[in-house]
Amino acid sequence: MFLNSWSLGLTLAGLIILILGLLACRTAVRILRHWDPSTDTNLQIRLENEIWLVSTLVEYGLGFQILTLVLFVLAADTFCQVIVGAMCATGALLANSFGMPALLVKIAGVFLYGFWIVLHKLDISSETYPLVKAKYIYLLLILPLIFADFSLQTLYIAYLSPDIITSCCAVVFGSSAETGRNLLEGFSQNILLYSYYGSIIALTGMGWILLKRWHLFIAAVFSIGWLWFLGLATVAIISVFSSYIYAMPYHHCPFCILKPEYHYIGFALYFTLIPAAFFGLTTVLVEPLKSKNDLAAAVRIYQRTAITISLVLLFLLAVTSSYHYLIYKISGGEL
Predict the structure, then answer these.
(1) Are 228 and 236 in contact (CB under 8 A)?
(2) Which of 35, 141, 145, 233 is most buried as measured by Cβ atoms within 10 A of its Cβ?
(3) Quick one: three-class SS letters along 230-299?
(4) How many CA atoms lie within 13 A of 302 on its CB side?
(5) HSE toward the beta carbon, residue 135, CA cutoff 13 A
(6) pLDDT at 298
(7) For residue 185, what pLDDT is reported?
(8) Cα–Cα dist 59/56, whole Å
(9) Residue 165, SS3 per DSSP
(10) Is the pTM here over 0.85, yes or no?
(11) Quick check: 84 pLDDT over 90?
């Protein structure tokens, strides 16, 4: 399946980003060995000039790697047109054993790559660059993930074949009484809804408290709560809200809601949930950086900004996810 515009684009982008990461590793090793901001040697001056270019390239490279998550899902939705049994990205991703792992690695990458960008932005906010070594150590740590991301994506595309017979989303996420399996069966709709809206209220309350006055314990619970809510909201969207979007009680696909016939509402849901969870999680992760030189004020500004963004996105998610559900209930319907 490499002779496909989506495949070629994803492969080329992944290869370029991987090469950028490998080149940045050379700079990372030099920084770990020779970085000393207290000196003004020629080597130190060259390193200071070099990190500006390398860090900027890495920032844009990781930013684009985050966007490849969207491209990967759109590509899978295109692949389903030539794979027997596939009706959407679900079937295409299940066409071989590399599709779902590649998707999960890309989702994890959104948070891990994004955190490097946060470290970089905080670092350049100070004239002393106190996080140079830390962010390049972190870059070395996430390089295997970048390699795994590219490898799984490449293997997935390489082993795709029009001759493969796969399962459609109606089979994977349908009623097990009819299909024999359901990935998310067993979740009570009422419990999910109470947990979903209860979590929204709790996160909103903790966020407002933190905006008024900073409490480390509440911040920790707030960030952990976002990790919990990310999983909960994903299950709620698939198991509960998708049925109301499709107006079909047994259709629970997480990918069909990305299609134009449903007004791309899936993008609105996922583009609010995932960034909101990221900003909520990083609120407490940057707390130890307050002890670094000249970073306390920048970290506090980031934390307030991250909390505000997460709450705004949470509100938009609540409105978007509830719209079809409320319209159906108000009109007197019952699934």
Answers:
(1) no
(2) 233
(3) HHHHHHHHHHHHHHHHHCCCCCCCCCHHHCHHHCCHHHHHHHHHHHHHHHHHHHHHCHHHHHCCCCHHHH
(4) 26
(5) 27
(6) 94
(7) 58
(8) 5
(9) strand
(10) yes
(11) no
For 155-203, write each residue's pLDDT tens digit.
999 998 877 777 777 666 765 444 444 555 556 788 999 999 999 999 9
Q: What's the chain's Rg over C-alpha atoms?
A: 22
CA torsion through residues 26, 28, 31, 34, sign: negative
Give me the pLDDT at residue 243, please.
87
Helix (H) or strand (E) holding 14: helix 5-34
Nearest to 106 by CA among 96, 119, 118, 93: 93
Interatomic CA distance for residues 281 and 279, integer angstroms: 5
Q: Locate the domains of the chain by residue range.
A: 5-167, 170-330
The count of C-alpha atoms lying within 13 angstroms of the C-alpha of 157, restricted to the half-sphere facing its C-beta, is 22
Phi then psi for 263, rounded to 5 degrees? 60, 30
Give the three-state DSSP class for 167.
coil
Helix axes of 132-158 and 99-124: crossing angle, nearest 10 degrees: 160
**HEC string for 195-240:** HHHHHHHHHHHHHHHHHHCCCHHHHHHHHHHHHHHHHHHHHHHHHH
Q: Hey, is 169 helix, strand or coil?
A: helix
pLDDT digits 0-9 by tens, 276-299: 999 999 999 999 999 887 899 999
Q: Which pLDDT band, with edges at 50, 70 and 90, does 82 fall under?
A: confident
Q: In the prediction, which pLDDT does 141 show?
A: 96
Grouping H, G, I as helix, E, B as strand and the rest as coil, residue 163 is coil
3-state secondary structure of 110: helix
Coil, strand, or helix at residue 101? helix
How confident is the model at residue 1, as a pLDDT? 67
Tell me phi and psi for residue 84, to 5 degrees.
Answer: -65, 125
Q: How many residues does the chain have?
A: 335
Note the pLDDT of residue 188: 78
